[in-house]
Sequence to fold (1153 residues):
Amino acid sequence: MIGSNATIPAAHPSLPGGLGQGYDQLVAGHDEMIDAQREVRPHWQSLLRALNQLGTSELARRWEEARHLIRENGVTYNIHGDPRGLDRPWQLDPIPLVINASEASILEAGLIQRARLLEMILADIYGPQHLLRQGQLPWELIFAHPGFLRPCHGLRPPGQRYLHLYAVDLGRTSDGTIWALGDRTETPAGMGYALENRIILSRTLPDVFRDCGVQRLALFFRSMRETLRLMAPHNHDNPRIVLLTPGPSTDNYFEHAYLARYLGHVLAEGADLTVRDNRVYLKLLGGLQPVDVIVRRLDDAMCDPLELRGDSFHGVPGLLQALRAGNVAVANTLGSGILESPALAAFLPSLCRSLLGEDLKISSAPVWWCGETNGLDHVLSNLSRLILRRVSQNHRQHPIVGSHLTTQQREDLRDRICARPADYVGQEPLQLSTAPVLAGQRLEPWSLVLRAFLTAVEGGFAVMPGGLTRVASNAPELLATSLQSGGGSKDTWVLASGPVSTFSLLRGTVQPVELNRGGGDLPSRAADNLFWMGRYAERAEGVVRLFRAILVRLTEWSGLIEVPELPLLLRALTQLTQTFPGFTGVGAEVRLANPETEIRSLLFDRHRPGSLAATFEGLQRVASMVRDRISTDMWRILNSLDLDDWGARGIQRPLTAVLGLLNQMVLTLAAFGGLAAESMTRGAGWRFLDMGRKLERAANILSLIRSTMREKTTAEGPLLEALLEILDSTMTFRRRYLNSVAPAPALDLLLADETNPRSLAFQLVQLAEDIDNLPRAQPTAGRTPEQRVILSMVTAVRLAEVLSLSQLNEQNQRSNLEEFLARLESDLPLLSDAITSSFLSHLQLSRQLASEQPGSRS
Amino acid sequence: MIYRIAHSTIYQYSDPVTFCQNLVHLTARQSPWQACKQSQLLVNPLPAVTASRLDYFGNPTTYFSIQEPHYRLSVTAINVAALTIPVTPLASSTPPWEVVRDMIRSARSDLRLEACQYVVDSPYVASSSALAEYARPSFPPRRPLLEGVLDLMQRIHREFRYDSRATTLATPLQEVLAGRRGVCQDFAHLQIGCLRSLGLPARYVSGYLLTTPPPGQPRLIGADASHAWLSVFCPEHGWIDIDPTNNVIPSDKHILLAWGRDYDDVSPMKGVILGGGSHTLTVSVDVIPVAEAMF
Fold:
């Protein structure tokens, strides 16, 4: 460190006891807060003063609150390679990075220049390619790069703007120089985290924030929103803007959801969008709604499976065609990822001179491209020192750090480079500056990288007065690679030179909150998933209850003489789970005599369709797709159904212990249903969930009664008891009829009684109500198909005469009951189909058509 | 020679397809040796949207979408093309292959820049040391480019077996090289890969071939399929077509449809559908010589 033997004050005036004590002793290079003389830099003084006034314990207390806020807000970052996609809570340090006004304005000019330069290069690559023709940019860098998307060549974005959002990682070395470490032009991530950091910090330290005169971020986001609005080819005044995300499994999903909410955009996945008549549409319950602008957080090549990568599940087939037709705008322009090639940096200084007539203001960290002889020689002779990247490597892949390699690995790398030199780039590792991080009770200097953000504005670019600062205590060379690496993040405070604008985009502060109770804006995909979540939850409950009744009889009694209804229940189980032949058909006698193997398979085999394990798996899968629409508590309940444990432990347990698990399971599922009933608003989403439940429960009742009561058996009494128990109606029955269990009153309670929430009639009446309350694109005069089906079912149940249903014919069969149940059972799928075709018909997934193989016929 | 080519593709689905979007390369492009006299694309059911343009490589391409439910999609492309015999340089007069390789590295002119497109890796064809090794015996030092190319073509023709059941569109090139069998598309990719692995530009050509019937027998209608070969870049001359499947330099019996880096750039038809269940695909190609007077 320069001047380290200069005056070292024993007790620094600005770093009094507690927080800052000993910090200067830990600093070993350039530090953002203290200078070479170990003096606190002027622009950090008011922050330190304010923090010291607060005191260590108060800061710690407030910070605990902030951490709570982070958890509450669900700020997370998914880590790749985590099999369950666990969300890691976002790490935020309470000490912001402070940048003074004069440095910020120098930086701003450099950033804008860099953004302009990159945009010009991009426009040339996807346009006339003068730079390639004149050799200013080696053709290999572009033609060999998988990110150069030929189908996107010649697409003309509105206003000739190619780069709408741009981010760049900056780092400072010991001599004070600031370097660009990496450009983000494809789907620049991080601005949502920067915003969230700011909101948390300004809430936790409002007094400190105010006293320091920090520039606000809202104006930047307003410019960005304005830019996106103006891109719209249609509906300039009120365009529909969607943020296209790969979905909840992606690492930055939190940010996608957060930004969409903040900017008032619709968060959509590829399956929510479709192209018709050269236009992009959003699939909503109320019908297809045109989309004007897409802010995509999906990689270039994934955006259109028709013209780009065919194996993409996340894209919108036909998007390129809609772009060519000029009916939609996409930010950033598709193909912009090519600018992230690490080799490009080697050519920026000369390109800047020739394209802008200026010297590059912010240099890239020194790079050598091995496609040129000089570069190759330099890299090969400095292999042990440099950081190596593939030219085509995206920022999610880690670079190779030369100094971490063994001699053998280094030799292998040398061979690989020599075989394909143009694929490699060597980058000089930089000793990055440090900034104070709160570690326990004291400050420690950690290396930092600042990600700066820009948005296109009319005639140029605007820079966010702030950014996302990431810090790490070790391996700083990896900081530049991605948001995933590094130990934490900081808010970034750019000090104002004048008065601070207090404009805010947060709802409630400037605009009146728009009251919205409609349901037409529910994406069809979410409605479909909620519907299926309802069905799976109910199916699981029905199966669990039947299992419980069977296991009680198997474990607490012995022999068929004591439980004559058991074979009937086992057959009903096969019927209900649709796992034929099971306890029916050929070989059923053997399995009925010794049912345990089949029962265990139906409980625990997750690979067997219809099994309880498979049903749970389905439930969790569907629930994970609508996580943003169910409460945290509902999600927690589902998570408590530990499937691995269920399969692994359950299979070895004796049946009595399994019975205990099933009892627990009934409570868990009841809690889930209870929360759905109590805590979800009665919007379209809840209607679909409820329809799923009611439909499934109706099917469950029909299946149970139909498979057991078709004919009179000697076990009729115990059977009716069992049915009442499974359908949770024993108490009501006892209260009404005391002890005479007869078919007619049981059937009345289970089928026709509209006041019994477990009866068939109750399910159908509720279904009718749900259907009547669904959002409809156009009010229709008559009844819709689904209304007609449900009305006919409700009427059939209301008109049914229970005494006649329970009557036996000469063969001791209940032919009236059979006819009645069969008709209703065949109506249920009609109802389900009618709902699907009215509300979810455009939900099918697209897939690739097989192509012919040339010459395969000759 | 003038040919009329009818290329018909029929998809039949078990369930209705509610929506489909397709991208086809079924219009014959022009070249110094070929003029496309007439081109027609018949799609049934009638598309809601049809848009034609030239792709990045200059091939005519058509996008169409069908927005009504259908069980059957039929696409028939009819091209009438007039061909002359290409001028091919004397193999021994072409420059040494190393000269071509090095010239490409320092591309300056538009034509050479265009050739550079075809020396780098593409989705189906990546250069490798194994491919370079296979190609090496055909390219001793200073051998004229075309001599080496023709020698390689002969070796592929001799050492590989035509077997339409050995490969699919998804079979990787290493497997073709190891298994020594495949169809025209595989052989074209193979030779392209060999040449690129030596640093020489080569492109994929999609088209049709008139299969000459044995003397005295009638020409079989519908037996012809779409065909694939390749083209190599020779400075001062331009592109020279090579057909390793038939071991010939194509003359006026190879009708050109489109070219690109590999199959992926110019596949005759790709599509994305909604619904459809399972489907069957039937393709037939008829290439009929027609009298000059008709056009």
